[in-house]
Design brief:
By secondary structure, this protein is an alpha+beta fold. It has helices at about 15-20, 40-45, 65-75, 85-110, 120-145, 160-170, 180-190, 195-205, and strands at about 1-5, 25-30, 55, 60-65. It binds glutathione.
Length: about 210
């Protein structure tokens, strides 16, 4: 049995979509970041880093979107969540590494600058740097999608679910997302996909 620990609208949406794509049964357990539930004693036993997502697989805990999504892709190869060709698979993993190590932290700097600096002026500088970097990263994702159906090319992969996280953050934080025409058209395509719609709507129900 698989259990996903997620928070609505957080980066755990990437794993939530990946899991839904497998078609396998799973339980989704909300850990509400807004209520600090990631720091409860019970959750720290699951992920001592106090972060979502975490995926329990028959009692074994997997963390980090890239780890979880790579696991799901390999466990359910018939679902073609990543290409079978090793170089193409590496391209997917490399893109997710960029998401995790560059794109996500740029948003964090804009959203939680106080975690990265001390003093009013320094915090304001980190926030401004985060906003500029995050926007530049969103523009880069837009250029990756231009001329393609999906982020990695002609086929849907787990990278698409991960890219949806950043589109949502950009839209919620007031970035001019409609200027990103390929990313916006792709987001609309994503929301037509039943697995994506189901994951997003189930998270919205939790946060409502
Ligand atoms: N690199 C990690 C990032 C995990 C992460 O930072 N998750 C955030 C939500 S988007 C979190 O749980 N934050 C809670 C906190 O920092 O207190 C991954 O991709 O899984």
């Amino acid at each position: 049995m698989m259990t996903l620990f997620f928070s609505p609208g957080a980066c755990s949406l990437a794993s939530h979509i990946g899991l839904e794509e497998t078609g396998a049964p799973y339980e989704a357990k909300p850990i509400l970041l807004a209520k600090g539930q990631q720091r409860t004693e019970d959750y720290l036993k699951i992920n001592p880093r106090g972060k979502v997502p975490a995926l329990s697989v028959d009692g074994k805990i997997l963390v980090e979107n890239i780890g979880i999504l790579t696991y799901l892709s390999r466990r359910f190869p018939d679902k073609k969540l990543m290409p079978a060709d090793p170089a193409e698979e590496a391209r997917c993993i490399g893109t997710m590494c960029w998401f995790s190590s560059v794109v996500h932290p740029s948003y964090q700097r804009s959203h939680r600058p106080e975690r990265f600096a001390e003093g009013e002026a320094a915090v304001a500088g980190v926030k401004e740097n985060g906003r500029k970097s995050f926007w530049a990263n969103l523009q880069e994702i837009d250029s990756m999608i231009q001329g393609n159906d999906w982020v990695m090319g002609k086929e849907f992969t787990v990278v698409d679910g991960y890219a949806l996280v950043f589109y949502g953050w950009g839209a919620r934080s007031g970035y001019p997302m409609t200027e990103l025409s390929a990313y916006t058209a792709w987001q609309e395509r994503m929301m037509q996909r039943p697995t994506v719609k189901k994951s997003v709507e189930s998270e919205e129900r939790v946060s409502a």
